[in-house]
């Protein structure tokens, strides 16, 4: 029998030991190939993802590659640990370490080649089903299956090189161990369980510090906090699993009333070694799970924003310019001509908005005329405004502001023209997007508006008001191609340090197409990435349990000979596995929740959107999946230790 035949038969004979490593490799190839099929789809040249550039799909592909390589590397290490005794026997029989390295390399290439082959076959078989899901998500007419060499070649090149590099790295950079240690198994090598009290407390302080910064995140502190929060959370989590957990377990063990009660001593004593030996693994698992939670939570957030976009943006087109804007007539005429060419119905309302100083706040207030507002409200089909002289009404800037402003009563004077008004009501519906009107905007009667003859007191240093043109378009999504050049000009100006154009333009349909395209891309990428992250997080635990299974069976055999019942065995296994599964996932859930507290504050400032409902739903769904996965692993673990 040749050396190559020995490696091949070794794989065939030990299929159960190789199964975990093979499945991890197979799934990574499977997901990567399906995504590659989407990325190289011919329809992408026709822009089936809207305006999202292909560069973001490439970035997502790179993320999948990097993480799947790490996933395969970790499963490779677990695979080698599971075969420690086999390697020890081969070395004891006279095999040289170079030959052992060559054997591991050949076996890895065999398993890798099979996983690549089957991953591509199953990936192509499921591509049609995946394209059907993508077609529904993106609301496409058709997304046919195709055959091209690019996804096949890319997948083979990426993963064949991965298996070569990982096998070489795992063999040549792993520390050499004595044959006796290999025979005893990796898990029986004693590891120091000492911890540092200062590091244990520092871990908690860093995590709590990150949580506090997340709660204090606002629009102005968003950038600087986004740098410090990940730093605090990552280092705090690492110290939490290497020192803090040991500190708490030690405290519990010193309380005899708790530690010595019933069968608690056995799982707590075992957790001392499990938590310390696997501290780095739990840290990686927590970070990976947090990334999965954030991916799904971000999808829920984008879903919330897209579903509420039409409520937040009731107008199709908005043009806003200075009172002396020289291009006003040219732009409005061009927009009207384009709308009529496309035969889109619309209702155009022109506003003259004046700025005045309120005696109540001493700040600027934007004043709208009652008749102008009623023209727009009539096109909406909303109730009209009826104001007498001296009466005024707040214009809401968000859904929440309607409740806040309805409780206010303000008696003020518009100082420039000495006009006394009383504001004791708010219009009960959103009239304008929050980006158009200021937080202090009011409606006055036509009589009072005509009395505002003197300009804003800071004029000419500040514009005394502006002209606002609103286009209420029932089918505003069909107006996405209206005045695209003007929208482009405005967008480019916003990227500069100072906005100098005397006008502003917003196309809700075009903006929504960008948002929908981005959401569609994130949905596709997020679901794939989250699936890989969640599977990897659970597999880390599975690999660790799998490699220590023989040693654990011996421990439980001793307990069974001592008379432990089946129910006590199940309870003991549950107490042993529960912290290993739910401690990393629980910490990851806390990290994600505080991350979304910060995101909620930012979303409130930018778009006045609540994401609580969607995030809670997504997290409940994830918790249910974790509980199901835990029970499956627990069931298989109990079945193994019973044999």
Tell me briefly what this model is.
The protein is α+β, with helices and mostly antiparallel strands and 643 residues long.
- Indicate the mean pLDDT: 76
Query: Strand order within the widest sheet?
Result: 5-6-4-7-3-2-8-1-9
β-sheet strand percentage: 5-15%
Structural class: alpha+beta
Instruction: Tell me the overall shape.
Output: elongated
Low-confidence stretches: 48-53, 186-192
As a whole number of angstroms, the C-alpha radius of gyration is 32 Å
Number of strand segments: 9
Largest sheet: number of strands, sense, barrel closure: 9 strands, mixed
Give helix and strand order, one letter per element, not per position. Answer: HHHHHHHHHHHHEHEEHEHEEEHEHEHHHH
Descriptive overview:
The protein is of the alpha+beta class and 643 residues long. 66% of the residues lie in helices and 9% in strands. It is built from 21 helices and nine strands. Strands 5-6-4-7-3-2-8-1-9 form a nine-stranded mixed beta sheet. It is elongated.
Topology:
Elements (H helix, E strand, L loop, with lengths): L2 H11 L1 H25 L14 H29 L1 H9 L4 H42 L10 H24 L6 H6 L12 H19 L6 H32 L2 H4 L5 H13 L1 H34 L4 E6 L5 H14 L5 E11 L6 E6 H11 L10 E4 L4 H8 L3 E5 L4 E8 L14 E4 L1 H5 L14 E8 L11 H11 L8 E5 H40 L1 H13 L4 H41 L5 H31 L1
Parallel strand pairs: 3-7, 4-6
Antiparallel strand pairs: 1-8, 1-9, 2-3, 2-8, 4-7, 5-6
Describe the structure using short key phrases.
643 residues, alpha+beta, 21 helices, 9% strand
């Amino acid at each position: 029998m040749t050396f190559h035949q020995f490696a091949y038969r070794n794989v065939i004979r030990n299929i159960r030991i190789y199964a975990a490593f093979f499945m991890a490799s197979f799934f990574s190839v499977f997901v990567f190939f399906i995504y590659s099929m989407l990325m190289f789809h011919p329809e992408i040249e026709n822009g089936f993802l809207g305006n999202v550039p292909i560069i973001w799909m490439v970035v997502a592909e790179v993320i999948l590659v990097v993480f799947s390589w790490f996933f395969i590397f970790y499963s490779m290490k677990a695979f080698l640990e599971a075969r420690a005794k086999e390697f020890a026997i081969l070395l004891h029989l006279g095999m040289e370490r170079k030959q052992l390295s060559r054997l591991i390399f050949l076996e890895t290439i065999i398993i890798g080649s099979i996983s690549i082959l089957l991953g591509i076959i199953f990936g192509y078989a499921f591509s049609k089903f995946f394209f059907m899901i993508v077609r529904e998500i993106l609301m496409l007419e058709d997304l046919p299956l195709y055959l091209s060499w690019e996804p096949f070649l890319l997948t083979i090149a990426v993963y064949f090189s991965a298996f070569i590099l990982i096998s070489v790295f795992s063999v040549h950079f792993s520390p050499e161990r004595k044959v006796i240690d290999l025979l005893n198994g990796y898990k029986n090598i004693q590891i120091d369980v000492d911890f540092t009290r200062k590091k244990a407390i520092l871990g908690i302080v860093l995590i709590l510090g990150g949580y506090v910064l997340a709660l204090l995140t606002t629009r102005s502190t968003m950038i600087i906090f986004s740098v410090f929060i990940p730093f605090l959370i990552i280092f705090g989590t690492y110290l939490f699993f290497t020192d803090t957990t040991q500190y708490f377990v030690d405290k519990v063990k010193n309380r005899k009333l708790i530690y010595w009660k019933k069968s608690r001593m056995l799982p707590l004593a075992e957790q001392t070694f499990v938590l310390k030996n696997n501290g780095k693994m739990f840290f990686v698992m927590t970070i990976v799970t947090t990334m999965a939670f954030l991916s799904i939570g971000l999808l829920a957030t984008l879903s919330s924003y897209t579903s509420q976009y039409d409520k937040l943006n009731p107008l199709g087109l908005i043009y806003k310019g200075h009172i002396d804007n020289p291009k006003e007539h040219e732009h409005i005429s061009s927009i009207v001509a384009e709308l009529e060419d496309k035969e889109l119905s619309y209702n155009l309302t022109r506003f003259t908005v004046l700025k005045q100083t309120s005696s109540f706040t001493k700040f600027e207030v934007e004043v709208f005329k009652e008749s102008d507002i009623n023209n727009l409200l009539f096109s909406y089909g909303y109730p009209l405004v009826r104001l007498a002289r001296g009466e005024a009404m707040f214009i809401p800037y968000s859904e929440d502001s309607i409740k806040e402003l309805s409780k206010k009563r303000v008696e003020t004077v518009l100082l420039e023209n000495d006009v006394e008004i009383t504001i004791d009501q708010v219009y009960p519906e959103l009239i304008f997007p929050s980006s158009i009107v200021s937080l202090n905007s009011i409606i006055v009667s036509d009589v009072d508006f005509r009395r505002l003859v003197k300009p804003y007191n800071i004029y000419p240093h500040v514009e005394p008001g502006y002209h606002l043109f609103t286009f209420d378009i029932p089918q505003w999504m069909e107006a996405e191609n209206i005045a695209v050049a003007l929208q482009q000009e405005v967008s480019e100006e916003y990227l500069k340090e100072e906005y100098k154009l005397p006008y502003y333009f917003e196309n809700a349909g075009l903006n929504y197409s960008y948002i929908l395209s981005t959401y569609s891309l994130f949905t596709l990428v997020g679901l794939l990435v989250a699936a890989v992250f969640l599977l990897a997080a659970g597999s880390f635990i599975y690999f660790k349990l799998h490699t220590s299974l023989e040693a654990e069976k011996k421990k439980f055999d001793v307990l069974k000979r001592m008379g432990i019942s089946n129910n006590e065995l199940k309870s003991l296994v549950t107490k042993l596995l529960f912290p290993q599964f739910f401690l990393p996932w629980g910490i990851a859930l806390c990290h994600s929740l505080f991350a979304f507290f910060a995101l909620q504050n930012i979303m409130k400032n930018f778009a006045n959107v609540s994401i609580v409902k969607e995030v809670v739903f997504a997290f409940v769904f994830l918790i249910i999946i974790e509980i199901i996965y835990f029970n499956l692993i627990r069931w298989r673990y109990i079945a193994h230790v019973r044999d």
